[in-house]
Amino acid sequence: MMNPFGPQWSGASQKAKESKAIGDQVQDALFGKRKPPGLDPDDFPETKEILALLNTYRRKFAMMAGDAEDQYRLQLADGTIAMIDGQGTIFIGIRFLMQFKNNPEVLIGALAHEIGHRPQRWTEYKTKKELTKIELESLCRYEETRADLFAGRALAEVNLNCEPMITFLKDIEEGPHPEYFPASLRSEVIKEGYNEQKTKATIRQKLWPELDKQTSPRLHIGEY
Ligand SMILES: [Zn+2]
After folding, report:
1. pTM of full prediction above 0.90
2. Ligand 1 (ion): which residues have CB within 5 A?
3. Helix, strand, or coil here: 106?
4. What pLDDT, in 10s, does the model give residues 73-99?
5. Structural domain boundaries of the chain?
């Protein structure tokens, strides 16, 4: 029997819907969003200096996250603030970039947040189980919290203030969002990461200055 407005039920041969791996579902929910259009920095020379600065921090933060530098790339984009896709391409919106080029802690904090997601690690979660909407949203909030914690730690490691990023998050807050905690809670998480890492970095610099010189992301200039 034909069903003109619905699926073609095939009766006995219909298979049970196969569950996807949990990692793939989270990757889809978090990093599978539609990508913003990319822009060529050659067409926007005013972005070059700040992009070069962000690239030095990309290397530091990749190292801090325990990943290789080439797992992350910066892509100038139109119509976004900042987002990362499943392959580690970090899209930075040109308006956001220009708005904060003289206040780069906000940009560097956003970059750290994106790298803190470490999207490629989700492909390792192979367990197959169809997540409910609630479960998926809760995993997304957990994931955002991890990224914020990393951002706080990363800013402390490179001796930058976390307050500008917190102010920015509060300024852009538009109301409750199922995948994010409110800005007030996010700022607590960022500060917690910041304070924890600040203590560690200070002790390391004081007690093991040589080790600090060799291992600190603050002094890391890249893999060659
Ligand atoms: Zn995020």
Report:
1. no
2. 144, 147
3. helix
4. 999 999 889 999 999 999 999 999 999
5. 19-215
